[in-house]
Design the sequence.
């Protein structure tokens, strides 16, 4: 049994994944979410989203009685020694960060701490702009609890780096742990908790100030997004050079140790709940302090245009898209998730509809979310075969393994016109080009 009991405020991708991972290693965890429907679902052993292993670990945690769902915030704080705040930090329409959920969770934790005698550690894991831990969370908890930070309770900012699609795997094997603590006692306590959790597989740990930890998270996401936008920019150039292929270029530069091979896969652009809103929040934060961030602006500019490029490639192969049946393969923002927040597919589908195409979509996991998003404007296929059957163009938007396995013969057999746009570079370009009408991101025309 873990020596500390933990509570989690916010049962989204981050909160639920962390909670079930801690429970799987013997820690008692208490979950709280303001969304009663979500809390009910979790209490019944069902994850409110698809993420490999999460539901299995949740069921085991409930069976072993290591995981409980609290009815109110006070119950969660009372039953734990450490509270992780894992609520959402969406963007406002102007790009600035919306801290309402963080403020509310801080107030709830603070209220609960008023009546608690034992020392309690509060750990903010949501991504927040520099200064939030010390200038927003700390004063709210102090006022609500009537206790100064460091006297009865401690506070850390501990950024989360997990990737959806491999969230459990990432939680068990992070590259590093960053702790931005308000004082030494808090930092020591959080480090000892992680030492207990990771035992002999303890990752490197970086102890720093809260602002540095907050900046590390933003700089990290911004850099990754910039790397992808960079290779997409090179991919766009490759398409104009006969014989050029971004795959070869990426491989060549990725072998340089100073660059590295990861996040150099050209495609239809990045999506997801984090990159855009974090870059926009950082840009807004910097602008308000008179600092220009042209690299971030360019990162967004390249990415905003990328989904439309695949539609343009389809138009080039097919001609007028009006009235054509176009199959969109992949809707989730990446494989192994059902998350469609800021997914590339949204822009692709909307543009296809604007151009008058008849759109049929398929995704192994995201169909429910897609139905909420697209309503009756598209046709929903229940398999990849059904999606391709009778289509006049297929666009690969998400690189699910199920799509990787398709051979040129499958497209030839099922489609009315075998035309494929590989928006994720999952196919052997030479083979596909020799058998059907084919275009791929970053592939220069051969004839
Ligand atoms: N999703 C990712 O891959 C990822 C990775 C790293 C960091 N992050 C960051 O982690 C944070 C959470 O992300 P997410 O994707 O899990 O968000 P999410 O939107 O999936 O989940 C947030 C949850 O918090 C709940 N909530 C809101 N206010 C609450 C309150 N006062 N008390 C209890 N619950 C409350 C919401 O109902 C929701 O269920 C964000 O700041 C995000 O930027 C996300």
Sequence:
């Amino acid at each position: 049994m873990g020596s500390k009991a933990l509570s989690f405020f916010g049962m989204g991708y981050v909160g639920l994944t962390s909670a079930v991972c801690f429970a799987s290693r013997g820690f008692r965890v208490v979950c709280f979410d303001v969304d009663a429907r979500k809390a009910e679902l979790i209490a019944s052993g069902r994850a409110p989203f698809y993420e490999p292993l999460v539901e299995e670990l949740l069921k085991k945690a409930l069976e072993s009685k290591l995981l409980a769902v609290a009815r109110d915030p006070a119950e969660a704080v009372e039953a734990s020694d450490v509270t992780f705040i894992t609520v959402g930090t969406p963007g406002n329409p102007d790009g600035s960060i919306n801290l309402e959920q963080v403020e509310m969770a801080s107030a709830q934790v603070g209220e609960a701490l008023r009546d608690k005698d034992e020392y309690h550690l509060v750990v903010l894991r949501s991504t927040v702009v520099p200064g939030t831990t010390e200038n927003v969370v700390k004063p709210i908890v102090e006022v609500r609890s009537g206790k100064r930070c460091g006297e009865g309770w401690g506070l850390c900012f501990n950024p989360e780096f997990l990737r959806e699609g491999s969230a459990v795997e990432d939680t068990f094997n992070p590259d590093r742990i960053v702790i931005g603590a308000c004082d030494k006692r808090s930092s020591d306590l959080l480090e000892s908790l992680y030492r207990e959790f990771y035992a002999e597989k303890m990752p490197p740990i970086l102890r720093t100030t809260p602002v540095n930890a907050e900046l590390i998270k933003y700089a990290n996401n911004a850099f990754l997004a910039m790397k992808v936008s960079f290779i997409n920019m090179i991919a766009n150039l490759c398409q104009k050079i006969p014989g050029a292929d971004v795959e070869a270029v990426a491989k060549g530069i990725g072998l340089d140790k100073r660059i590295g091979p990861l996040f150099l896969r050209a495609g239809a652009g990045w999506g997801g709940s984090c990159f855009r809103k974090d870059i926009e929040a950082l840009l807004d934060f910097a602008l308000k302090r008179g600092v220009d961030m042209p690299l971030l602006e360019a990162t967004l500019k390249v990415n905003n245009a990328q989904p439309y490029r695949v539609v343009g490639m389809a138009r080039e192969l097919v001609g007028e898209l009006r009235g054509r049946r176009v199959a969109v393969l992949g809707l989730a923002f990446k494989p192994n998730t059902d998350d469609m927040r800021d997914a590339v597919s949204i822009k692709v589908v909307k543009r296809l509809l604007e151009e008058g195409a008849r759109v049929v979509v398929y995704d192994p996991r995201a169909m429910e979310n897609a139905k909420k998003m697209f309503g009756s404007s598209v046709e929903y296929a229940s398999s990849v075969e059904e999606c391709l059957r009778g289509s006049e163009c297929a666009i690969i938007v998400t690189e699910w393994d199920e799509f990787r396995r398709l051979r040129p013969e499958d497209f030839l057999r099922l489609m009315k016109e075998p035309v494929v746009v590989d928006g994720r570079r999952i196919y052997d370009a030479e083979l596909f080009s020799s058998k059907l009408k084919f275009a791929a991101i970053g592939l220069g025309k051969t004839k």
